[in-house]
Design a protein that fits this description.
The chain crosses the membrane at residues 6-27. The protein is α/β, with parallel strands linked by helices. The chain has a single domain (35-193), classed as 3-Layer(aba) Sandwich (Glutaredoxin). The chain has seven helices and seven strands, in the order H-H-H-E-H-E-H-E-H-E-E-H-E-E. It has helices at residues 2-28, 30-34, 38-43, 84-99, 113-123, 136-140, 167-175; strands at 74-79, 104-110, 128-132, 148-152, 158-163, 180-183, 190-193.
Length: 195
């Protein structure tokens, strides 16, 4: 009888671990599911076709003044030190940073400054890093979840946006730079379709 209980307990733990792993995979790919419709893309973040707010008088994490106009497109991502998916994104972000010198890379790190510094130093996050301890930049850009990214043209106009979980999402956002704006009738929102 004891053997039956032992084997059934082991089997139950295997099932629980399998379910936990499956849920992790589903939540990991949440970005693809969440942004699968035009309505959800238009809802979060500044609308495609609109300019992002200027970051005047802001300082980077190392104390330099934020570059207001870079003369090239900007890939801007919002990360949080408490977000595991954000930490997992850093190697892909750094790879894209080294791969694309024609794009300015900007990281808005949201939350506690000590945790920001720890996250940035542990994985050597590349790009212009701007702290947002009071979430004001997050709110100005209407971002609700991290990691969330915008691709901006040279004038600071949003060309694409969405959750950014890895290299596929980074390349997908960059591809919007070569797209044409298409006005969507009805809600006044604009969307961008790859050419």
């Amino acid at each position: 009888m004891n053997e039956v209980l032992l084997y059934s307990t082991i089997l139950l733990w295997v099932v629980v671990l399998f379910i936990g792993f499956t849920l992790f995979i589903i939540f990991r790919q949440f970005g693809e599911v969440y942004l699968s419709t035009g309505e959800s893309i238009a809802r979060d973040g500044i609308a495609i076709g609109d300019r992002v707010p200027l970051l005047n008088n802001r300082k980077t994490l190392n104390g330099q003044t934020v570059q207001v106009q870079t003369g090239k497109p900007t890939l801007m991502v919002f990360l949080s030190p408490t977000c595991e998916v954000c930490k997992d994104l850093i190697p892909d972000w750094n790879h894209a940073f080294h791969e694309r010198n024609d794009i300015h890379f900007r990281v808005i790190v949201v939350g506690n400054k000590e945790k920001m510094v720890e996250m940035v130093n542990n994985q050597e996050l590349k790009g212009e890093i701007i702290p947002d301890e009071n979430h004001s930049i997050l709110e100005e850009h209407r971002v609700r979840v991290t990691p969330f990214a915008f691709i901006l043209d040279k004038q600071g106009v949003v060309r694409g946006k969405g959750l950014c979980n890895g290299m596929e999402h980074i390349h997908g956002l960059i591809s919007y730079l070569n797209s044409d704006f298409v006005a969507v009738k009805g809600r006044g929102d604009k969307t961008s379709a790859p050419a």
